[in-house]
Specification:
homodimer, 226 residues, alpha/beta, 60s Ribosomal Protein L30, Chain: A, six-stranded parallel β-sheet, four-stranded mixed β-sheet, 7 helices, 10 strands, 26% helix, elongated
């Protein structure tokens, strides 16, 4: 199970396909407010106890304990006619959570992660998704084995690729983002069909990976509207 | 003064217009490696002492103490023929630092902040800029007083504006980004000439402010290349 903190996020998990096991709440929250339907165990506890459970600096008055789902096997056919994200060893929980939130904004349904990518149920990841984790499917797998079996164009964000403003993204594909320090690993780089780059006008050495992901998602979306 | 941590960031401040006062380093770092020129006080100390000074979980072997500069009065004329960022009460240090790093990538030289925006010399901000703070000018001022005096188009990121993919940004202007929870304050909203929105295709309620800033910077850059 994993922790979800805050009224809004807990409500989003209750209204999603996830199974919420227990909701701990202070007397200020009436369980009815949570719009519930399914078998949820509600426990009224003190703010002091919430503080003991919470991983936040400023604990909120509701904490949910949510079951980690058994993800069905990734269905490659379901990835056709749209874009999905591929994360190769993204390590920072804040980046991971922000990427999930951004994917949700742009309507990206699936994120395929290498096995060494940070755990999506890490409380800092869950928090940074701001509830979006309830709506985006996150799969962990061996990218080197799986990518060749998905018959789609593979775009990879690199420092020496084609200018994204001139790239024809088309209407389907995978977008691969690499590790914060090392980028995309050589094993996975070999599987990329188009290397792409966000053109640099200034002097920063690189962009944060969540920032780069968002710029690319926006560019893919804009392209699809042409 | 403020702290800068890590070999790369300290070097960038030494090679910038900032005055580095003292560099604390472990015996593993030879001061000559730092390419120095100006009056810098070098102090070799133990890793234990570095750990006492550091604000990082994993302290690095160099810490610089840098003088907070006296910023010259913002010259409105210098803002013509380009884009600058305006931050209205951005609060999260990680967001602030990431925005500065992103501005540096896109060649944006000036960021104008409301007086209640998070302090740019907060160690978490400095760290998240990854050295870019050495190259981007950050001004604090009363936005309500200053914006009307800068005679440039004012674009504001809102949830109910014009679709950014259809916006003609032109070649100069200000881009206003608001607070994480509350957006742009009503006082500043009145000064916006074009409200713009990143179209949402999914269900996330909002985007992280650093993410939205990056998407808009990219769109402005792409527009300027047409």
């Amino acid at each position: 199970m994993f922790l979800v903190e805050g009224y809004k996020s807990v409500t989003e998990f209750i209204n999603s396909g996830y199974q919420v096991d227990t909701v701990y709440h202070t007397p200020t929250i009436v369980p009815k407010m949570l719009n519930l339907s399914r078998n949820i165990n509600f426990q009224e506890i003190s703010m002091k106890d919430i503080e003991k459970i919470s991983t936040l600096k400023t604990p909120q008055d509701v904490i949910g304990l949510v079951k980690i789902p058994k993800w069905p096997q990734l269905n490659y056919n379901s990835l056709k006619n749209r874009f999905s994200l591929v994360l190769d060893n993204v390590q920072d929980p804040g980046n991971m959570g922000t990427i999930i939130r951004t994917a949700d904004w742009f309507g990206i349904a699936d994120i395929i992660c290498s096995e060494d990518t940070v755990d999506v149920y890490n409380p800092k990841v869950v928090q940074a998704t701001m509830g979006s984790l309830a709506r985006v499917n996150v799969h962990y797998t061996s990218l080197a084995q799986v990518l060749p079996q998905i018959n789609l164009p593979v775009f990879g964000a690199m420092l020496d690729g084609e200018n994204i403003y001139n790239t024809g993204f088309g209407t389907e594909g995978l977008l691969v983002m690499g590790n914060e320090g090392n980028g995309i690993s050589p094993d996975i780089e070999r599987l990329i069909s188009t290397k792409i780059t966000i053109p640099r006008a200034g002097e920063a050495e690189s962009l944060n990976v969540a920032i780069a992901t968002a710029i690319l998602c926006s560019e893919i979306k804009r392209n699809s509207l042409k």
